[in-house]
UniProtKB/TrEMBL annotation:
Keyword tags: DNA-binding, Transcription, Transcription regulation
Protein name stated in the entry: Trehalose operon repressor
CDD domains: WHTH_GntR
Native source organism of the sequence: Neobacillus ginsengisoli
Xref: SUPFAM superfamilies: Chorismate lyase-like (SSF64288), Winged helix' DNA-binding domain (SSF46785)
Domain HTH gntR-type: from-to ranges: 3-71
Domain of life according to the entry: Bacteria
C-alpha cells in the first residue's frame, strides 16, 4: 500500500464535494464502508477524513458520522486587514473589480462623523463591484481622506488600492475597527450587485488607521448573503 494513499482518497472526495456530486449536509459513508470501497486500512481512511475536516470540507459529529459542508461560500477573514485582490488570488478563482464611481466629494454630516473630519475636507469616493466567478457579490464603498491619499486613478482602483498606498505612496496601514450588520439592500446594492432573490446583505464597516494611529479610510463592504463565511480564530485566555 502506498504511504500517501490517504491523499489520493482525500483528493477524490474533495473533487466529489466541489463538483456537487456530494451535496452539502449529506452524510459521508461510514469508515467501514470507505475501508471496503477503497480497499485500504481504517487508519488511512481516518487520515483522509481528518484532512477533509481540517480544510473545511466536512464536519465530524460524534456518534453520527461526517457531514459535507457548504463549500460554495468564500471564507472572509473577520480579524484580518486584507484586500479583495489578496483574498481572490488566495482562492484561485476568476475575479474582477469594476470601478463604478471614482470622484472627489465634500463630506456630508455622516462622513464627517465617520472620518472625524470637517465639511472643508475633501474625500475620495470609490464605489467598486467585486466579481467572483462572473457574479458581482461584493459592493465596496470606500472613502479616503484626500490630504492623506492625494492621488487615485481608475487603474489603481481596478487593482489594489492598498498595494498602491503601501508600495508606491509609502503609507503604513496598521489596523482597522470593524462592525458587522445584516441590512436590507439599498438601490445601490440592486444596481451594482447580482442579488438574485436575496433580501439582505452582510455589511462590514471598516475604520482603517495608519501606523501613527490616524484614521484615513472608512469603508462599507456589502456582501451577498449566500456567498461568504465570516471566519476568525479565537483563543480562550487563562
Amino acid at each position: 500500500m502506498r504511504e500517501n494513499k490517504f491523499l489520493s482518497i482525500y483528493d477524490e472526495l474533495v473533487n466529489q464535494i466541489q463538483s456537487g456530486r456530494m451535496k452539502p449536509n449529506t452524510k459521508l459513508p461510514s469508515e467501514n464502508e470507505l475501508v471496503e470501497q477503497y480497499h485500504t486500512s481504517r487508519e488511512t481512511i481516518r487520515k483522509a477524513l481528518n484532512l477533509l475536516s481540517q480544510n473545511g470540507y466536512i464536519q465530524k459529529v460524534k456518534g453520527k458520522g461526517s457531514f459535507v459542508l457548504d463549500v460554495s461560500r468564500y471564507d472572509f477573514p473577520v480579524s484580518g486587514l486584507v484586500s479583495f485582490k489578496e483574498i481572490a488570488q488566495k482562492m484561485g478563482r476568476p475575479w474582477k473589480t469594476i470601478v463604478n464611481k471614482l470622484e472627489e466629494i465634500q463630506p456630508d454630516e455622516y462622513l464627517q462623523k465617520q472620518l472625524h473630519i470637517s465639511s472643508k475636507d475633501t474625500v475620495w469616493k470609490v464605489i467598486r463591484s467585486r466579481e467572483m466567478e462572473h457574479e458581482r457579490i461584493i459592493l465596496d464603498k470606500d472613502f479616503f481622506i484626500k490630504k492623506v491619499v492625494p492621488n487615485l486613478t481608475t487603474e489603481i482602483c481596478e487593482g489594489s488600492i492598498y498595494e498602491y498606498l503601501e508600495h508606491e505612496a509609502g503609507l503604513k496601514i496598521s489596523f482597522a475597527k470593524k462592525e458587522i450588520t445584516v441590512d436590507e439592500p439599498t438601490e445601490e446594492d440592486y444596481c451594482y450587485l447580482d442579488l438574485k432573490d436575496y433580501k439582505h446583505v452582510v455589511v462590514v464597516k471598516n475604520y482603517v488607521y495608519l501606523e501613527d494611529m490616524s484614521l484615513f479610510q472608512y469603508t462599507e463592504s456589502r456582501h451577498r448573503l449566500d456567498k461568504f463565511r465570516f471566519v476568525d480564530f479565537a483563543r480562550r485566555g487563562n
